[in-house]
Design the sequence.
């Protein structure tokens, strides 16, 4: 078998050095084999007396997929492959403990649970482990979950008294530097990068735009038009349609099913998202690997490395939120043909205002910006962790105490503050303030010898399975039909309510509030259930590229005739209104727009400052913002208004100027363990940014 370039370079790094290894290469370049084959070769020469390789994945679905793939690959080598998570039975886990060999696959939450509840199992299973392999490491970056993962690797090593070689895999990574630091953190090994010069696949993108009017009759006509266009493009195609929300996923699948029934075509449309049951998702994945021309409507659940075979086409419905996400999705197609094909459909809502800021096709501009950023610069977002992750600090403090039962304050501080997520982020004094507050609130308690242990007011929460996760999760209701799981919803259900889930229409028959479950029966309603998702922040580079796109006259060959027409109209409007001049103000009576092409975080910060702190004093009527613009209207003259804002920014800012009450400081899942004074510091560090707007106003008023 001839190795791919990625596999050759990785094999050399893994087998001929003792370093940690980061493998970055495009989708379908053989990264899984690049990590496992050399690691297993080394294990064959020096067999482990316990689990040989711990594999950590962001998704249970990806674990299930890789389990089948690795089991098939290793079936003749007598190397067992096991999974360990909440869906695995107790008898199967006991079997893993008895055999204690081969590869064990886990999510960070499963490893957290083991360290907290059964640390003796961790010692038994990983006492002679040689490698930790982290798949899709980019999906952990910039989040508390990533911080938890890097902490867990160090905690496991300290518990077992040994160091493991760490191998991380990623298809999309902006900067390797921070990942290499985390891979080598608290070890005596360096981390090296394996990044082959990938053979570029040809890319074919076609971007179609529809303007959605307000008038209901015309709106339905346009809706039917774009759905029919999409249906026609999917004929004889195996494809994934990526949507930006679960609601959109369900409604799109339902619309395509209706067209299929009308055309008397077979129903080949499936759904795949986090609220659909694991069994239904797995059936969809299995069908995609067959020769059938299946179409799956999905969210990010199929963005990562789950094997869905060779796709003819990927569809992006709506503007992507990240360049890295766009690249991940594009890479899902063309594995055999070496041509990645993507159809992008943008739905621009018609504006009710004639002001240029509201007439701009922002979703179209955002999409073109992301395509051009990667095409011109190979740009990818650099995910940054919180500067003051107090929620994670409190969580890990309680988790460590659960593992070791009790620790002296100095020992606890020495242990926790040297975990990778907290190095150079918290001082001993800051941690002392946190521990003192947790003691005062009985989240921690202290015995006569000075040992700290889990307190009365945190014990119940720490002992719940939800505590193993550090990310926000919606409060969900499990949905069943005739005893089989259909999925889950996040809004409060009532008997008789109609919903669409797993691509089918249902009506709620029974609700069990104690168990948070509901039974449904089939229904023909078209009412859509609503999930409340978050798109995230747009990178500053996307905003600057939009500015550049509006200022230039370049033609983009991937645009449809209508998309090109809309772009040219936007360019004309931007030039005529002065929007592309930087920096400047655009004033319409008492409405003023700050035309500075600011970072989205800056726009959000200014909006909160105006609405909470300055609205009454400056007689502000309304603040208009989206991802790219900020406009203010009030009773006083715009220049007087802006000068007052500048005066405010010239003075120190406090968190209560951005929040209506202290409860709003609690943003992360475990912030309730943290005192308000620390959360205030963290809020200003991580959620407030006004440097660009401050400098913009200084320029306007000629201040130095």
Sequence:
């Amino acid at each position: 078998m001839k190795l791919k370039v990625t596999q050759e370079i990785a094999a050399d790094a893994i087998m001929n050095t003792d370093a940690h290894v980061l493998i970055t290469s495009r989708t379908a370049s053989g990264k899984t084999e690049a990590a496992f084959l050399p690691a297993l070769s080394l294990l064959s020469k020096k067999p482990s007396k316990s689990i040989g390789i711990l594999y950590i994945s962001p998704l249970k679905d990806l674990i299930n997929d890789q389990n089948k793939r690795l089991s098939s690959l290793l079936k003749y080598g007598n190397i067992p492959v096991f999974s360990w998570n909440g869906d695995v039975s107790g008898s199967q886990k006991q079997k893993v403990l008895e055999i204690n060999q081969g590869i064990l696959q886990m999510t960070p939450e499963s490893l957290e649970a083991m360290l907290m509840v059964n640390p003796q199992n961790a010692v038994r299973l990983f006492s002679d482990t040689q490698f930790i392999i982290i798949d899709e490491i980019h999906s952990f970056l910039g989040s508390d979950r990533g911080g938890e993962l890097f902490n867990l690797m160090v905690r496991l090593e300290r518990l077992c008294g040994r160091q493991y070689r760490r191998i991380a895999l990623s298809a999309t990574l902006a900067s390797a530097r921070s990942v290499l630091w985390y891979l080598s953190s608290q070890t005596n090994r360096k981390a090296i990068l394996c990044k082959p010069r990938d053979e570029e696949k040809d890319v074919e993108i076609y971007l179609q735009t529809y303007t959605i009017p307000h008038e209901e009759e015309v709106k339905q006509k346009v809706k039917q038009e774009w759905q029919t266009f999409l249906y026609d493009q999917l004929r004889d195609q195996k494809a994934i349609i990526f949507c930006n929300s679960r609601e959109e996923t369900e409604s799109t699948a339902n619309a395509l099913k209706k067209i299929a029934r009308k055309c008397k075509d077979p129903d080949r449309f499936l759904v795949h998202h986090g609220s659909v049951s694991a069994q239904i998702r797995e059936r969809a994945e299995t069908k995609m690997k067959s020769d059938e021309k299946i179409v799956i409507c999905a969210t990010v659940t199929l963005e990562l490395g789950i094997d869905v075979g060779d796709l003819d086409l990927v569809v992006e419905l709506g503007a992507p939120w990240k360049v890295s996400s766009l690249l991940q999705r594009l890479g899902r197609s063309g594995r055999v043909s070496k041509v990645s094909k993507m159809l992008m459909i943008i739905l621009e809502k018609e504006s009710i205002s004639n002001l240029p800021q509201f007439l701009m096709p922002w979703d179209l501009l955002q999409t073109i910006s992301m395509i051009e950023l990667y095409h011109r610069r190979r740009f990818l977002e650099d995910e940054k962790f919180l500067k003051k992750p107090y929620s994670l600090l409190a969580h890990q403090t309680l988790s460590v105490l659960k593992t070791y039962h009790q620790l002296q304050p100095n020992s606890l501080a020495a242990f926790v503050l040297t975990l990778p997520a907290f190095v150079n982020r918290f001082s001993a004094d800051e941690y002392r303030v946190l521990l003192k507050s947790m003691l005062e609130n009985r989240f921690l308690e202290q015995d006569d010898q000075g040992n700290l242990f889990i307190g009365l007011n945190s014990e119940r929460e720490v002992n719940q399975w939800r505590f193993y996760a550090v990310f926000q999760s919606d409060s969900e209701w499990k949905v069943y039909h005739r005893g089989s799981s259909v999925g889950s919803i996040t809004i409060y259900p009532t008997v008789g309510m109609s919903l669409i889930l797993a691509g089918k229409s249902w009506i709620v028959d029974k609700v069990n509030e104690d168990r948070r479950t509901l039974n449904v029966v089939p229904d023909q309603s078209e009412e859509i259930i609503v999930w409340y998702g978050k798109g995230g922040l747009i990178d500053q580079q996307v905003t600057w590229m939009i500015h550049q796109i509006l200022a230039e006259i370049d033609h983009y060959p991937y645009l449809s005739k209508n998309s090109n027409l809309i772009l040219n109209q936007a360019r004309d409007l931007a030039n005529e209104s002065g929007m592309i001049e930087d920096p400047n103000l655009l004033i319409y009576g008492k409405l003023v727009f700050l035309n500075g092409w600011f970072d989205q975080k800056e726009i959000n910060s200014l909006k909160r400052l105006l609405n909470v702190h300055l609205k009454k004093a400056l007689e502000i009527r309304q603040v208009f913002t989206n991802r790219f613009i900020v406009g203010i209207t009030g009773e006083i003259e715009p220049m007087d208004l802006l000068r007052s804002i500048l005066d405010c920014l010239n003075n120190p800012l406090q968190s209560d100027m951005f929040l209506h009450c202290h409860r709003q400081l609690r943003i992360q899942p475990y912030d309730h363990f943290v005192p308000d004074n620390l959360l205030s510091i963290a809020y200003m560090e991580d959620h407030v940014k006004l440097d660009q707007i401050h400098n913009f106003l200084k320029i306007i008023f000629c201040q130095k």
Remarks:
- The chain has five domains: 5-194, 202-377, 390-468, 477-522, 581-653+688-700.
- Residues 319 and 363 are 5 Å apart (CA to CA).
